[in-house]
Each structure stands twice: as C-alpha cells, then as structure tokens.
Amino acid sequence: MVKITDVARHAGVSPSTVSYALSGKRPISQMTRQRIESSIRELGYRPHAGARALASSRSNVLALVVPLRAGIHVPVVMQFAVSVVTTARGLDHDVLLLTQKEGEEGLRRVADTALVDALIVMDVQLRDPRLPLLRSLDRPSVMIGFPQEPDGLTCIDLDFRAAGELCVERLARLGHQVVALVGSPPEVYVRETAFAQRVVQGFTAAADRNGMSSSVRPCESAPGAARRVAERLLSEQPALTGVVVHNEAVLGPLIEAFEQLGLRVPGDLSIIAICPDELAESLRVPVTSVALPSAELGARAVELLTKKLDGAAVPEATLLPPRLTDRASTAPRNAS
Predict the structure, then answer these.
(1) For the CA atoms of the chain, what is the radius of gyration?
(2) Containing H/E element for 234?
(3) What is the pTM of this model?
(4) Counting runs of H as helices and runs of E as strands, what totals does the chain give?
(5) Which of 90, 134, 213, 281 is deepest in the core (most CB within 10 A)?
(6) pLDDT tens per residue, range 66-92
(7) What does residue 290 show for φ and ψ, rounded to 5 degrees?
(8) What's the rounded Cα separation, in Å, for the pair 270 and 261?
(9) Are 186 and 228 a contacting pair, CB within 8 Å?
C-alpha cells in the first residue's frame, strides 16, 4: 500500500508538505501542489477519508436511501444498489446504504452529520412525506422516482406511464381486445408508490384509447398468489387474450398457472412484462418485455448527484423512454 512518505519521496518534498497539500491547512505553491498531485496519481495513493474530508470539506460518501418495505422485490433493488456503488466508486465516492424505513427523521439524522455529502432516494411515493425535508436540506439529493409534485427536486426514472402504454399498444397491434394488468403486491399501491401507480395510469389510458376491455389486479408475492390471480382473471374475463405483468416475483409462476389452466403461451394468451431483460430471457417461454434499466438509472443518478456537488446545473426531470423487446410470449390474437 502506498504511504504518504512514498508520495513525499517521489515528489521531492517532506511528508508534512504532502499532508498540508491534502488538508489545506497551510499555503503551498502551485508548482509544489502540482508535483504532489502528479505523484499521487502516478503512485496510485489514496488518502484516507479523514484527509479527504479536511482537504475538501467533504466525506466523499453518498447515502443511498432504499427502505426495504413490504412488497419490494429485493433482487431488483440490489441491481440499483450495485450500479450506484460501482459508479460512485469510479468517481472516488463510497456509498452508505440505508435500508430501514428512513422517513423524514431518518433522513434528517443522516443529513445532520458529516457522514454523507449527498443523498440518492428510492421507493418514491406520489405524496412522499420526505419531500419537504429534501427541499430544505443544505446538501444535494437525487430521487430515483417521481413524486406527484416534483418541483424543486432532481428526479430520474424510467417513464413508467409510457411503459404501460407501450405494452398495451403492442397487444392492440396484435389484435388483442381483452387485456389485464397483473401488478405489484397490494401494499405497494396502498403506499401510492409512484412507479406502480404510473404503470396503471399508462395501461388504463392505452386500453381505453384502443377500445379494449381491461382490468387491473395486484398480486401478492406469496406462493399460490399467481394461481389465484390467474383463476380470478379468467373467471371475470373469459375472453382474456393479453396480459401485462409488472411484478417480477410472479412472472414465472403466473405463466405456469395460466398453462395449468389450459391456456398456451402465446397460442392462447400473449404476455408482456415490465422487468429486467435477464429475467425475461431466462424463463422457459422467453417473455416480450419492456426493460427495467436499473444499471443505467443507478449510474445516471450518481452522475447527476456528483454534478450537483460540483455546483453544475442539472435537469430537474430525467425520464428514460421505455424500450420493448419482442420475444416468444406474444403472438397475434387467435394464433395457432
């Protein structure tokens, strides 16, 4: 491991001069500072967090606030977290992961310390109680998700309303007229989680626009829930031929349940999901899907946040357009 004495020897200065360059406690000539910085880069020296904080009045730590509430699909959340951590590390930042139900009190506790420089906030609700605090903090934040009133905040997300619409439009072009949305667990809607609400809005709007008969059914993640939802849908909509699934945990079990009830996918029933590509591709019947770009969202959230830390202007709203990939689970209506 490279030490401060190695940097001093390489730059031809004393260790105390290197320390002063890092901490800013004493003035150092521009030429000497540049020589020290060059040695740091060449040797790969990484000053410890305390030294970095003294030099920049920053901790170089970002908080990722992702409360693991009921109904959250943890594998997808972890994809976001890995992307945030990886991107932050490439920009010389560490990440403090907060997974408890961090409401306003939890956010204030973290923000009132010198632990973090900025925050990335997930699991955004339409009427999120954390918004007043985020607007008042003296440190920047980025939300992965859009509340109902995003003014004064920096938000990024997939355009989930457009994603719901895109799924229905694809089914409409295939000739399907009776469709259903199998959505997130009920508690996700009770909390008015923003992305789930917007998928419903887009699904319903597109179905109405195309004169389609439609219904929306939340689905628990518990074993047997997919079968119960499939049975209920077929009882209520006997002519059902198209299903949109926005619930990663039940996608595979739901396809199996429909097939056990006598429907072939895609011969009798076309299925489109909003989910990560790797999940859609891994099932026995590869599923036509709108990709959930968790890696891109996480990376771009970090980039927005570091730009704000540097005082650069960033857009308040960033919506990624949905991308649909056709696979084996969709076919024209009444296809043999």
Answers:
(1) 25
(2) helix 225-236
(3) 0.81
(4) 14, 12
(5) 134
(6) 887 878 888 899 999 999 999 999 988
(7) -95, 125
(8) 15
(9) no
